[in-house]
Amino acid sequence: MRLLDKEFELFVTQQEIESAIARISQEISSDYSDKCPLFVGVLNGCFRFTGEFFKHYNGACEVSFVKMASYQGLTSTGIVETLLDISATIEGRDLIILEDIVDSGSTLQQLVNHFSDKNINSFKIATLFYKPAAYDKEYEVFYKGIELPSEFVVGYGLDYNERGRELNDLYILKSE
Ligand code: 5GP
Ligand code: MG
Fold first, then answer.
1. Cα(99) to centroid of ligand 1, in Å?
2. How much is the CA Rg of the chain, to the nearest whole Å?
3. How many CB atoms lie within 10 A of CB 59?
4. 23-31 long-range Cβ contacts below 8 angstroms, 24+ apart
5. In the structure, which protein residues have their CB atom closer than 6 angstroms to any atom of ligand 1?
6. For the chain, which domains are there?
7. Were both Cys, which of 10, 65, 92, 134 would link to 150 (CB 3.0–4.6 Å)?
8. pTM beyond 0.85, yes or no
9. 97 with 111: CB under 8 angstroms?
10. What amino acid positions are annotated as catalytic residues?
11. What's the pLDDT tens digit per position in 18-42?
C-alpha cells in the first residue's frame, strides 16, 4: 500500500483494533461508573478511536477535544503546540485524555502540564496505540489498547503527511 512516496504494509486489522477499543471502553465504564468523567480527545488522530469508544461506553459523561501538533512527516519534532483548547469547564472534573498513539510521550507531557494547574479532580490517559520502547517519560499511561514496536504506522486516524487517516486498518512503514 502506497501513500505519497512511502510503502506500507498491513499490521493490525480493524477487527483487532476495535476489540481493543471495546475492552478499554468497558474497563473505563466500570472504573468510572459512579462519576461523570470529561473525555478529552486529542485531534486529529483520535477521531476514529473516539467514535468507536463511545459505541461501548455506558454511563454519564461529557466529551470535548483539543488539538496539538508534534509530527512533521515521519519523526516527532519534539515541539508540541496547543492549537485548540478545551471549551468545557474542567475545575473539579475527572478528566480522561483519549489519545490515538503515545510514542515518545512529548505530547502527553504537554497535556499533563497544560492541565496540571487547573484544579481538576483526577487525570488519566487512555491511548489506543502505545510504543513502550519509545516512551521515556515518568507519567503513567493508564489505559492502553495495542502495543506497537517503535516504527511509523498509519491508518485508523493516524496520518502520513495528512494521508491515510481514513484507512480502516493499521499499516506499518516498509523497511527499505
Ligand atoms: P509523542 O509526542 O508521544 O512522540 O507523539 C505523539 C503524537 O505523534 C501522536 O499523538 C501522533 O499524532 C504522532 N505519532 C506518534 N507516533 C506515530 C506514528 O507511528 N504514526 C503517526 N502517523 N503518528 C504518530
Ligand atoms: Mg495525536
1. 9
2. 16
3. 13
4. 23/145, 24/53, 24/126, 24/128, 24/143, 24/144, 24/145, 25/53, 25/54, 25/55, 25/56, 25/57, 26/56, 26/58, 27/143, 28/57, 28/96, 28/126, 28/143, 29/56, 29/57, 29/58, 29/59
5. 45, 70-71, 76, 99-108, 152-154, 158-160
6. 15-150 (3.40.50.2020)
7. 134
8. yes
9. yes
10. 103
11. 999 999 999 999 999 999 999 999 9
Q: Which of 91, 93, 99 is nearest to 66 (CA)?
A: 99
Distance CA 83, CA 43 (A): 10
Task: State the Cα–Cα distance between residues 157 and 142, nearest whole angstrom.
Answer: 21
- Nearest residue CA, atom 12 of ligand 1? 45
Residue from 40, 50, 103 whose mutation best tests the ligand 1 pocket (most atoms within 8 A of CB): 103
Q: Which three cell numbers stand for residue 123?
A: 487525570
Other beta carbons within 10 angstroms of residue 152's beta carbon come to: 17
* Tens-digit pLDDT profile for residues 52-90: 999 999 999 999 988 876 555 555 555 455 555 666 678
Name the residue with the closest Cα to ligand 1, atom 23: 158
For the record, the C-alpha cell of 110 comes out as 504537554
- Single-letter code of the amino acid located at 61: C
State in Å: Cα 99 to ligand 2 middle. 6
Lookup: cell for 118: 487547573
